[in-house]
Amino acid sequence: MLSVETFSAFFLASALLAIAPGPDNVFVLTQSALHGKLSGLVVMSGLCTGLLVHTGAVAFGVAVIFQASALAFTLLKVIGAGYLLYLAWQIFRATPERIRMNGNQQRDLGTLYRRGIIMNVTNPKVSIFFLAFLPQFADPERGSISLQMVALGGIFIVATILVFGVVALIGGTLGDWLNRSERAQRGMNWVAGTVFVGLALKLVTAEK
Q1: CB burial class (10 A; 0-12, 13-18, 19+) of residue 103?
Q2: Which end of the chain, N or C, is more open, meaning fewer C-beta atoms within 10 Å of its C-beta?
Q3: Cα separation, 193 vs 188, whole angstroms
Q4: What is the domain partition of the chain in residue ranges?
Q5: Is the pLDDT of residue 98 over 60?
Q6: Measured between alpha carbons, how far is 151 from 163 in angstroms, rounded to an integer?
Q7: 56 vs 170: CA distance, rounded Å
Q8: 16-21, long-range: CB within 8 Å, 24+ apart, which pairs?
Q9: Measuring CA to CA, how many Å separate 141 from each of 148, 155, 208?
């Protein structure tokens, strides 16, 4: 098992990494601003579900494929960038009435949850990051490396939930103010769409 010192150091590092501006926390912020605090929290849940996939990949060695294969890395990042561009296109076309979550709230929450999973899973840099970051805190003398990877992944997810939860609440508060004005909603739409285009370009041009 992990020592108290390793647990504390890894949790602090994970929280600081979650706070640092990046695609995932920007995604939570924009979605909570557009759709409300609950939606931001649902997106966060989707992203953290994706982190479970990356944790499992690192623990059982699948992520090594993406580190070793340029083709696999390129294919996955192109898929992720394409999905982000699709989201941007939808947002640019959305009207203020479609931004609000009314009768179709349950379906929309499910869609946002799936978006969070897809965005996280199709970002190969997360797998590469986990592959490089998690093993630094593992100690072969403390038992199974795979189990330690799973434990570290869990700690990272908890830290991410705490940080992204605050981001979602902030974004939701911003969205409450924006929803009083159609012009503000349209402006936020274009800001969010532009952010997604930027994230797609950043992802597709990323190198290992």
Answers
A1: exposed
A2: N
A3: 8
A4: 27-204
A5: no
A6: 19
A7: 31
A8: 18/159, 18/160, 18/162, 18/163, 18/164, 19/163
A9: 11, 20, 30
Burial of 5 (0-12, 13-18, 19+ CB in 10 A): exposed
Confirm if 162 and 27 have CB atoms less than 8 A apart: no
Q: What percent of the chain has pLDDT over 70?
A: 69
Q: pLDDT tens, 116-150? A: 998 888 877 677 777 767 766 777 677 777 788 88
Tokens representing 163 are 């940080």
114, 133 in Cβ contact below 8 A?
no
Q: How many CA atoms lie within 13 A of 22 on its CB side?
A: 15
pTM over 0.90? The answer is no
Contact by Cβ (8 Å): 125, 72? no
Instruction: Specify the amino acid at residue 195.
Output: V
DSSP letter (8 states) at residue 164: H
CB 122 within 8 A of CB 79: yes
CA distance 190 to 188: 5
State both tokens at 167: 């981001």
Specify burial of residue 116 (Cβ count, 10 A radius: 0-12, 13-18, 19+).
buried
